[in-house]
Fold this sequence. Notes:
By secondary structure, the chain is an alpha+beta fold. The chain has two helices and eight strands. The chain has helices at 2-24, 47-52; strands spanning 34-45, 56-66, 71-82, 92-106, 111-126, 139-153, 161-171, 177-187. The protein has an eight-stranded antiparallel barrel with strand order 1-2-3-4-5-6-7-8. It is globular. It starts with a helix and ends with a strand.
Amino acid sequence: MKFRKSYKIFVIHSVLTFLFYTNVYAQEIYWKNVSIGANISFLYLTNDFGDNWENSPAFGGSINYKIDENLSVIGEGFISKINSKEKKFPDVIFLGLLGGIKYLTYLTDKFSFNLSGGIQSNTFKFENEEENRLEDNTNESEFGLFVGTGLGTSIFREFPIEINIRYQSIFSSPVAIKMYSAGLTVFIF
C-alpha cells in the first residue's frame, strides 16, 4: 500500500516538473518551425509476420521540427489493427512510435525530396488471447530502426503534403520483423 502511494506521488511530481520546465523553456522553441500533421499509411508485412498476418492500414500523427533549411527532427505515432490469416493466431493491435531525423533537398520551389531515419518503439497487443495463447502475456514491446525516403509538395500552401516509403526492422525473437510502409502525411499546422 505504501508503494502505491509513493508511486502516485512520484508520477504527480514528474508531471508537474515536466509542465513547469516545459513552460519555463517554451520561449526557446521557434513555433514557426513546428509542423503537425495527420497521416495514413499501409503496412506491408514480411517474413513470418507477413505469412501469418494480413497487410494493414495505419492511422496516426506526425510532428516535424525544422532545425535549419534542410534538417528536421521528426516524431510520428500510428496505430493499426492487423488481422490474422488463420484462426489459430490472434489479431494484433500495433502501436508504433518513431523518432528520428529527416534531411530534405528542394527539387523546385514547390517540390522536395527527403531521406529519414531513426529509432522506433513498437507495442503489440494480442486480441482474443485466451483462445489463441502465444506467450505468457498479451502485450509485447519491441525496439526497432527505420529508414525512409519521400517526396513533399507545397502546391497547397496551407496544407503541405508528403508521400513517404519506409523500411522498418523490429528486433524481436526468434526472427526480426521486417515491414515496409507507404504513407501520406498532410501537415495542418
